[in-house]
Amino acid sequence: MTVEIIRIFILLAVFAAVFLLIQTSATSYAKSRTYKGAVNERLRMISSGQDREVVIGKLMKNRPGSGGNLPGFLLGAEERFEKMVFASRTSFTVGQLTMFMGLGLVGVYLLLLLSVAAFGAGLGIGTILILGLVSICLAVVLPLLVLGRMADAQRKKMEHQFPIALDIFVRALRSGHPIASAIDLLTKEMEDPIGSEFGLISDEVAYGADLVGALEQMAERWELEDMKMFVVSLSVQSQTGGNLAEILDNISKVIRDRHQMFMKVKALSSEGRMTGWMLTVLPVFAFVSIFLVTPQYYLDIAEDPIFIYGSISLIIMYGLGVYIIRRLVDLKV
Predict the structure, then answer these.
(1) 191, 37 in Cβ contact below 8 A?
(2) Half-sphere exposure for 214 (CA within 13 Å, toward CB)
(3) Do 276 and 325 meet the contact criterion of CB atoms below 8 Å apart?
(4) Residue 87's CB: how many other CB atoms inside 10 A?
(5) Which of 15, 124, 133, 212 is the most exposed place for a label (fewest CB within 10 A)?
(6) Residues 237-280: pLDDT tens digits?
(7) Cβ-based neighbour number of residue 244 at 10 Å
C-alpha cells in the first residue's frame, strides 16, 4: 500500500512538473511573440544600428512619385501600379518589378517559341498570338494578381489598425502630449504597416516638413477615406482651434460604425464578389492550363482566320467584362 501511494505521488509530481514546464514555455513564447509583433519594421532597423536617413530611404523607396511624361491613360496606370507596389510592402522597387516582368515576358515567350518549333508546329500569326497571350498571362497578369492581393491585405490591415491608432492618439492628447509627441508614441506602440507609416511622418516633421502635408501624402498613398477624414480634422483644428481630442474621439466612433456597416455590406455581397473573382481568374487559368497540358488543342487551329479574329474579339470582350465586373463589385460605404 505504501509503495502504491509513493508511485501515485511520483506520477503526480511528474505531471505537475511537465504541466508547469509547458505553461512556462507557452507563456514565455506568447510574450515574445507579442513583443515581436508590437515592434514595427522601422524600430527594428533603428535598433539594429542603422542610420536614421538610411531607414527613411528604405521605407520610402517605393513611395509613389508624381508621374512621368507618359500620356494620360498610361500615367494613370503607372500611378496605380506604383501605389499597388507601395501598399504590398514588397522588397522590390517599381523599376525592379517592371524589369523582372519584362525579362520574364521575353524569356517565357522565347521558351514557348523554341518549344513549339521543336515539336515541328508552324509559326504563323495565330501561333505567335497564342504564345504571346500565354506569356503575358504567366509573366505579367499572374505577378500583378499576386501584388494586388498583397496590397489589399495590407490596406485591410491598415483599416483595422487606424481606429486603434486614433484611440492611442486621443489618449496621448488628453494626457497632455503635443501632436508631434502623440504621433511619436504611435510609432512605438503600433505594428506594421501603420507603425512604420507614422514613423515616417514623425521623421519628416523632425526634418522640417509640414505635419498636415505629410499626413495628406500618407492618406493619398494608401487611398483610405478614414485617413483623409483624420487629416481634414487636424487641418481644420489647426486653423480654427477646438478640442482636438474630442473631435478625433468622435471620428474614431464614426470610423468604427462605418467599418461595421461595411462588413455587413461585404457579407451580403460576398457571393457577387466571389463570382466576379471567378469570372476574372477562371478564363485565364483555363486558357493557360489547357495550353500547358495539351498545346495542340490551340496550335492545330491557330492559323484558322476565324480563330485569329475570334481570339482578338474575346480578348476585347474579356477586358470589357473585367472592367464592368470591377465597377459592379466596387461598393462604396
Answers:
(1) yes
(2) 18
(3) yes
(4) 23
(5) 15
(6) 777 777 888 888 888 888 888 888 888 887 887 887 888 888 88
(7) 19
> 266 or 69: which carries more pLDDT confidence?
266
Q: What residues contact 115, with CB distance under 8 A and at least 6 apart?
A: none
> Would the pLDDT of 157 be above 80?
yes
What is the average pLDDT score of the chain? 80
Which contacts of 172-178 are long-range, i.e. CB under 8 A and separated by 24 or more positions?
Answer: 173/244, 173/245, 173/248, 174/245
Asked whether 12 and 5 are in contact (CB, 8 A), the reply is no
DSSP codes, 294-306: -THHHHTTTT-HH
Instruction: Cell numbers for 266, please give them.
Output: 461585404
CA distance 201 to 207: 10
**In whole angstroms, how large is the CA radius of gyration of the chain?**
28
Whether this prediction's pTM lies above 0.90 is answered by: no
Residue 203, Cβ neighbours under 10 Å: how many?
Answer: 20
- Contact between 165 and 224 (Cβ < 8 Å): no
With DSSP H G I counted as helix, E B as strand and the rest as coil, what are the percentages for the chain, rounded to 5?
80, 0, 20
CA–CA dist 2, 51 (Å, integer): 69
Per-residue model confidence as pLDDT tens digits over 279-290: 888 888 888 888
pLDDT tens for each residue of 307-328:
888 888 988 998 898 888 888 8
d(CA 138, CA 121): 21
The C-alpha cell 523607396 sits at 61
Q: Which three cell numbers stand for residue 299?
A: 496550335
Cell 487559368 belongs to 285
DSSP H or E segment with residue 20: helix 2-38
Dist. CA 196–CA 45, nearest whole Å: 11
Q: Are 161 and 147 spatial neighbours (Cβ–Cβ below 8 Å)? A: no
Q: Give every CB contact of residue 242 below 8 A, 6+ residues apart in sequence.
A: 236
Residue 32, pLDDT > 70, answer no
